[in-house]
Amino acid sequence: MTRTPPDQTTAKRGRPRAFDRDAALAKATQLFWQRGYEATSIGELTRAMGINPPSLYAAFGDKKALFLEVVSTYGETYGAFTRQALDEEPRAYDGMARLLREAAVSFTDPTHPRGCLVICAATNVTEQSSDVEADLRALRAGNIAEFERRFRAAVEAGETAPDADPHAMANFYAAVFQGMSQRARDGGTTDELRAVAEMAIAAWPKP
């Protein structure tokens, strides 16, 4: 008796598609960045990522775990310019100048949501999400501490005025950086943010 071979088209249609974890994570990044942690629902995430809720939980854990992975990935991709500017420039002044100038471009780039995800994605959250807000606050505090460390070294190396206050400088430039992110979210143009960056650069306490 001759067996009829299975319909290959039907078999292919019934086979589940391979799950592209990186592509799904990229979709989640865009959604969290645009809408924020609190306003982004599991349903919106699964639709954007092209998976069902069980697959999301299996691959990433819960919503918070997914968001924290998004934040980590963001720091290695879209937000990497901040670390690179400070690490690659030999002088603190040049590093901060580069950071602010690149922020003006990155924060207004039309290919992704505006501003900085770490700054804008977890504001005005409910009490249930306060730990997420605290996590991002800790990241921002760590950045300010790194600014201060570099500025302190700059004072000791004679790159700034001898009476410059590294703590005040770190808070000032952090406030400028964070303000540029919000200004971009509010519709500020690249040129407007560049002007802000140049004013902040000019405020550097030169020796």
UniProtKB/TrEMBL annotation:
SUPFAM superfamilies with a match to the protein in the record: Homeodomain-like (SSF46689), Tetracyclin repressor-like, C-terminal domain (SSF48498)
TM ranges: none
HTH tetR-type domain location: 18-78
Keywords per UniProt: DNA-binding, Transcription, Transcription regulation
DNA-binding region, residues: 41-60
InterPro entries linked: DNA-bd_HTH_TetR-type_CS, Homeodomain-like_sf, HTH_TetR, Tet_transcr_reg_TetR-rel_C_sf, TetR_C
Entry coiled-coil feature ranges: none
Name of this chain's protein: TetR/AcrR family transcriptional regulator
Organism placement in taxonomy: Bacteria, Bacillati, Actinomycetota, Actinomycetes, Kitasatosporales
